[in-house]
């Protein structure tokens, strides 16, 4: 990598760090190419990205961003996973880490908050942004649905009573 490629890499990572909601730092303990591809696909499906970056360049890119505190985690063979959704990347990495012992979650960041490995696992156990939106919409719609049911119930009961009288008269 020459100097211009390094500068481009730092600028790219810096722009990413300024846009994303969460960054997870993982340590590679001998992942095969197939396992790495599977992990990348799972993270991509969740709406995130997984990338191996040089530690020194990642530390430079993280400066003056909300993820400035991640520098301590960037030692050894590390990789970064990130997503705009604060839960998506963490959830995908934690689920993959349960299937193999060849990847270790080192830590991460959620905005200005630096998370240790347990913090990332706790973040992964939370519902995603889409799930929270669905629950909120369900809670907002529930009273309206119940009101509609209550307003139609008396009319339905009255119609059944009239039908019963009509059946009685017909018999």
From TrEMBL:
GO terms for cellular component: large ribosomal subunit. One of its GO terms (biological process) is translation. InterPro entries: Ribosomal_uL10, Ribosomal_uL10-like_sf, Ribosomal_uL10_bac, Ribosomal_uL10_bac_type, Ribosomal_uL10_CS_bac. One of its GO terms (molecular function) is structural constituent of ribosome. It holds the Pfam family Ribosomal_L10. Signal peptide: none annotated. Transmembrane segments: none annotated. The keyword Ribonucleoprotein applies. Keywords: Ribonucleoprotein, Ribosomal protein, RNA-binding, rRNA-binding. SUPFAM superfamilies: Ribosomal protein L10-like (SSF160369). Forms part of the ribosomal stalk, playing a central role in the interaction of the ribosome with GTP-bound translation factors. Belongs to the universal ribosomal protein uL10 family. HAMAP family: Ribosomal_uL10. Part of the ribosomal stalk of the 50S ribosomal subunit. The N-terminus interacts with L11 and the large rRNA to form the base of the stalk. The C-terminus forms an elongated spine to which L12 dimers bind in a sequential fashion forming a multimeric L10(L12)X complex. PANTHER family: 39S RIBOSOMAL PROTEIN L10, MITOCHONDRIAL. This is Large ribosomal subunit protein uL10. It comes from Novosphingobium umbonatum. The gene is rplJ.
